[in-house]
Amino acid sequence: MMRSARGQTFLLLFASGALLPLALAPFNLWPIAIPCIAVLFYKLQHQTAKQAIAKASVFGFAMFFSGVSWVYVSIHEHGFIPAPLALLATTLFCLFLALLFALPFVLSALIPQRANSWLLGLPAIWVLSEWFRSWIFTGFPWLYVGYMHTDTWLSGWAPVGGVMWLSFITALSAATLGQLGQSLFADKTSGKKRPIQIGTKISCLLLMALIISGYLLQSYSWTQKTTGELSVVLIQPNTDQNKKWSPVERQNILEQLQTQTQPYWGADLIVWPEAAVPAIPQRVNSFLLDLHNSAKVNQTALLTGIPTQDQSTGNYYNSVLAIGAAKGQYDKTRLVPFGEYVPLEGLLRGLIRFFNLPMSSFSLGAKDQSLLTIAGEPVATAICYEIVYPDLVARSSREATLLLTVSNDAWFGDSFAPQQHMQMARMRAIENAKPMVRGTSNGLTAIVGHRGKIEQQLEQFMVGELSGTIKPRAGQTLFAQAGSWPVVIMALLMCAGLITRRQLSQQRETEYEL
Questions:
Q1: Could you tell me the sign of the dihedral formed by the alpha carbons of 90, 92, 98, 101, in that order?
Q2: Which listed residue (43, 244, 332, 434) is catalytic?
Q3: Could you give the domains of the chain?
């Protein structure tokens, strides 16, 4: 009987975790996240540390296997790994992420085992779980539940506390729902309904206040328009990922980029996506020189993704190079494991084809790089994966008036990863109250306003050009100044306070018995 109940519990947790990604792009069924997390929080009550990790791991594995299993596309279709091995690798990856997700929930066994403690402690631990996996082993800041509020009233809070503050509000909503549920249903032992705790009532009022204030904050102007306005063209070449790095195809790729760009000389800014030029500058020097001359004559700044090499050190970088009416270079500072560098390279390189992917030997760019400048407007640049790091983008955006991100989401095929990626990019625009241009190889290419609304967008998997205007904005939001630290510190203090309270209570009980 006990085994059956345990199996039902794990099945319920698995189902809840698997359903949670439906709250995020491309499904955007955001209310579903609250009962899903409420199930986890309910099952974490009165648990030992070992039980808490086990239950959180089941929930986390289902969440990641449902929400990020698109890595299978990269491993199988572009890494040329047989389907069974690719599925195994995807499963192991999700198990690893599930463990990282679950580890902070050890704290749930250390806080007082009472309703009001769970009401605050479990949402705080949820935030710590998201924060923990944002930096451990270079981080994987994906599937934050706060992203579900990109288009809700609560998005007004993003410039104040960022996506992690939205995650806390979401988790608090789930904890409150869980406590309300326990009060509405009769106790199995006594057959009587439990009274609603005062803490739960206060939490309901607090959530109502947060929702209303979030709506009001949506209209607050955190930044101001500059005097300039830029005409922008984003080139989407839809290059076949399996042919991209073939020397035979290089000339065709470069000619296509030139052909797509030709009608738009004279625009203030033209953007080519990540690694649009599939060779280091030394190998396409004449092409870049001709491009520079054309751009300079037309007073156009062209920014292109391109791999670069430092001749003095021999290191390779994933870069954005400014050409024509702009100068400078940005080197990526957050690399994707196995995609852009191979951990334990001496052991893994050459073991299987996946560890020999093209351009998987990049080095980290310098932390403090000068901003690129377009027509007098400083631009904060993020390459692909970097846009999902809230604090990284916040730091670079402080002195910028425009956010730029380039990506090559062709690695993910026809999965929902590009939509998730786009949602996270939109949240960066909201957090920093700055407009954004997003250039990709095969979509989603878009111009995003400073409130995170997509103003123009190209369809996926098509060759196209997106032309429009963007209005740079100066100033800083509270989140741009402080980042996620106030929310993280709040969560740490909540947990520390609750743990201390339980220890003092146990100490008093021991003294009383003596």
A1: negative
A2: 332
A3: 2-220+484-513 (no CATH), 224-481 (3.60.110.10)
